[in-house]
Each structure stands twice: as C-alpha cells, then as structure tokens.
Specification:
By secondary structure, this protein is α/β, with parallel strands linked by helices. The protein has 11 helices and 13 strands. It has a single domain, classed as Metallo-beta-lactamase, Chain A, CATH 3.60.15.10. Helix content is 37%, strand content 20%. A 7-stranded mixed sheet has the order 1-2-3-4-5-6-7, with no helix packed on it. The protein has a 6-stranded mixed sheet with strand order 8-9-10-11-12-13. Helix 6 runs antiparallel to helix 7 and helix 8 crosses helix 10.
C-alpha cells in the first residue's frame, strides 16, 4: 500500500507491505523534478510504478542498499528505462542483494537484483542541483542529497528520530554523529529533513542537534555507569528501562544492548568539536 503527500515541490511516497490491512512499518521515497529518491520495498513496486506512470521520471537514486529502499529498483528500471545510482560501497549489495534476515523479509520482502551505477558528487535535474554527501553510520555506503538553494535534505535512514533506543549490526554511532554534523555544516539558510520514515522535519538543524546531544549525553552516562561497575545489561536497565521488544523479534540483531555497546566504544571527542563549530 502507498500514501501520497506533498511538501512544496516534493512528493512524498509512503509505502508499506500490507498485513491484514494494517501496515506494520512505513518507509518513504521522494519524487522531485524527474528524480526518484529510493524505491521502497518489493511488495509496493507495482503500486509505485503505477504512480510514476503519470510523472516524468529521469533518474533514480538509492540512499543505501537496504531492502526497503531498493525493492522497486528492478521493476522501475525495466519499465521506465532509467538509470539507478548509489554509493560505490552499496553497489555489490544492490547488484546481488543478500537474503534479508527472517524478520526483515516478513516486513519488507526480498528485493530482486537490479542494475545500478556509481553516483557522481552532484545530481542535476531540470530545475535543481543536488549535492551528494557521504553519511555513513546507519550502514556503510549511505548518502544524503542536499539541494542548497531550497534547503532540502533527503537524509535516508541517517536520522529516524531524536532518541534511538536500539541499534543493529551495521550501525556505528560515532559515524552517525559525524554524518549528522556534516549535514549541520551545509551552507544553507534552512535545512528541511526528508527522512525515510514518515516524517518531514521542517527545522532539520534543530532535529539533528537534538539527536547529536542525545547520543553524546547517553554515551557519557553509559561510560560513567560502566566505570561504576555496571554491566551492559545493567546499563540498559538504568538508561533505557530495560531491553527493547525488538531484541526478541530480531533475535538480538536490533537491541538496546547493541546501542549501549556502541555508546561505550564511540569516539566523540572530534564529534563534539564539530558539533560546537556547526552550532556557532
């Protein structure tokens, strides 16, 4: 199932695999001036293609390689004859997608292989010019697109909320904060975040700063507790009120314990300096 929303000249396409009429999880793709950013999951590929039949489609960009962002690639590329671009580090996993873990396959399905090419540093459409910015942290090969003249930032899954409670096997908290700082430093009058979740954040800089502050403060608290003799599980209980239900659902792949381990090992010294510079 899909939902269509509009923000300025941008169309947000929300997609979810239907489960007895109830969407278990949403992901957003965006269409602007002939450019499609991400293609959702494989189960919504046909609906996405039907929507695009009434649009002018020139190019597709994947923000990263996860199955809820590339699932429509093969159908869209074949039906519309458009090029699909992604970060070089993502290409092998889009060319030959690995089988998702069972919990992710149930939610998103398995994406078919698709032809994809390395993305350049800038994407130019008829009306807009997008800078391609490396933003790893959610996973390797993650990118964001920024249209500086409009203050639009398509941030993929880098920012999904201010207070993340779980982390997965590809996450790197230090890199996430560095990438968020990188977006903060973009020279624009405003920064609107178009996230891959259901949200559009009109004050993107405030959202990013809040997310950075959360990670930094949680890291300090976690390290203090660890020095006081707390175990990872004890820190989870103290800081997060216990383990997340996602730990059971994902068999430990996404868990609060993973987040705590990353908070304990992340290097925030340089990140903190970058954050102060961005805020000044």
């Amino acid at each position: 199932m899909i939902e269509i929303n509009h923000f300025e000249e941008i169309t947000q396409i929300r997609m979810s695999r239907a489960s007895h009429g109830n969407p278990p999880y949403w992901v957003s793709a965006y269409y602007v001036d002939g450019l499609l950013i991400d293609t959702g999951c494989s189960d919504t590929a046909e609906e996405l293609a039907e929507f695009l039949e009434s649009q002018k489609l020139d190019l597709v960009v994947n923000t990263h390689h996860h199955e809820d962002h590339i699932g429509g690639n093969e159908l869209i590329g074949r039906r519309f004859g458009v090029e699909i671009l992604a970060h070089p580090d993502s290409l092998p996993m889009i060319d030959r997608p690995p089988l998702p873990p069972p919990y992710r396959e149930r939610v998103w399905g398995s994406p078919p292989a698709s032809d994809v090419s390395p993305i350049p540093r800038k994407i130019v459409t008829n009306r807009y010019r997008f800078d391609v910015i490396d933003t790893p942290g959610h996973c390797p090969g993650h990118i964001a697109l920024v249209e500086k003249s409009r203050g639009w930032c398509f941030s993929g899954d880098l920012y999904v909320g201010e207070k993340i409670k779980v982390c997965g096997p590809e996450h790197d908290v230090g890199e996430m904060v560095t990438s968020m700082n990188r977006l903060l430093c973009v020279d624009t009058d405003r920064l609107v975040l178009f996230t891959a979740m259901r949200t559009i954040e009109p004050n993107g800089r405030r959202a990013l700063r809040s997310g950075i502050k959360y990670f930094e403060e949680m890291s300090r608290h976690a390290r203090d507790l660890y020095r006081d003799g707390f175990t990872v599980e004890g820190i989870v209980d103290e800081l997060l009120g216990g383990e997340s239900v996602f730990d059971r659902i994902t068999k430990g792949q996404y868990s609060s314990a993973n987040l705590v381990r990353l908070l304990l090992s992340a290097d925030f010294e340089e990140v903190r300096s970058d954050s102060e510079n961005a805020a000044s």
